[in-house]
Specification:
The chain is mainly α. The chain has one domain: Formate dehydrogenase/DMSO reductase fold (Up-down Bundle). It contains 14 helices and two strands; from the N terminus they run H-H-H-H-H-H-H-H-H-H-H-H-E-E-H-H. A two-stranded antiparallel sheet has the order 1-2. A hairpin with an 8-residue loop joins strand 1 and strand 2. The relative contact order is 0.16. Keywords: Cell membrane, Electron transport, Heme, Iron, Membrane, Metal-binding, Transmembrane, Transmembrane helix, Transport. InterPro entries: Cyt-d_oxidase_su2. One of its GO terms (biological process) is aerobic electron transport chain.
Amino acid sequence: MSALQFIWFVLICVLFVGFFFLEGFDFGVGMASGIIARTDEEKQTMLDIIGPHWVVNETWLVTAGGAMFASFPMWYASLFSGYYIMFFLVLVGLIIRGVSFEFANHAETARGRHLWYNTFVIGSLLAPLILCMIFFSMIQGVPINAHGDLSLGFFDIVNWLSLVGGIAGVLMSLIHGLNYVRLTTTGILRERAENLNRFLYPILFVGEVVFALLVFFQTDFFQNKLVSSTIITLLIVVMSLLGAWGVYKHHEAWSLAGSGLSLAFVVILIFNGLFPRVMIATNPAHNILIKDASSSPTALKVMTIVVCILLPIVLIYFIWSYIIFAKRTPSTKKAIG
């Protein structure tokens, strides 16, 4: 394995970390809008607090997929062809959530507006659920032939670990979104978000125990990398404790950091367990390794140069957009339409 191959594997991990940290609270706000927002004005406020950012946050996933295609085409081909229907469902969730912003704002009737508010909730739930199911199905080992082709059955995709992982991803995103609501709104929405998180955090801690046990028994992560997998798992719990502490002590920023980093460490746990593989086969002889799945050294070198030039520009714009919209949004904003 070359240094550039390792760097691009880490970079793809970083892109997924950024996606779940940033788009995670977008998904959470969307789901929370169906729980804590009870009037049109409150639902519109939930749309407004992520309106300036959700497109940029979503591009982290697009960039991760593009980086995978360019740097590890064999990984991309095996993963996306094998999980084609699942990725299609993720795309459906992202699309219906995306259009709900515009359609809710331009709906001419209350009924139409409520339809798109509900679509916003459904799309925000569907995308993280299916995406997490893909990841936690993949790490258990899947049927792969010598050519890297997947032949997945229903229970290769839907099983205890993928279901628990999908539900955990939804719950962690919801908690993350509620912490973002607490940070960016005032009034009744902020209070409801805090009260709901006080209820959800104990459930999350129980779920994390179940999740850790399933990862231990249904993957080879702890067998192959006992120390690093244990440390990362503990960090997931520690970050969740930090988020809960922020809720009970009314520190919104610490809560958001804790819930976001707990999601980030879940992604890191997955990539740490995969390394030096990119796909785990039920037959170890058919594992797809980083060194075999990557593009040519010249392609990796050119892409690295392009990233070094463009990344600072993108990050400056990204940070600037959050600074511009840093002011809290009142809970009484009028609905449009």
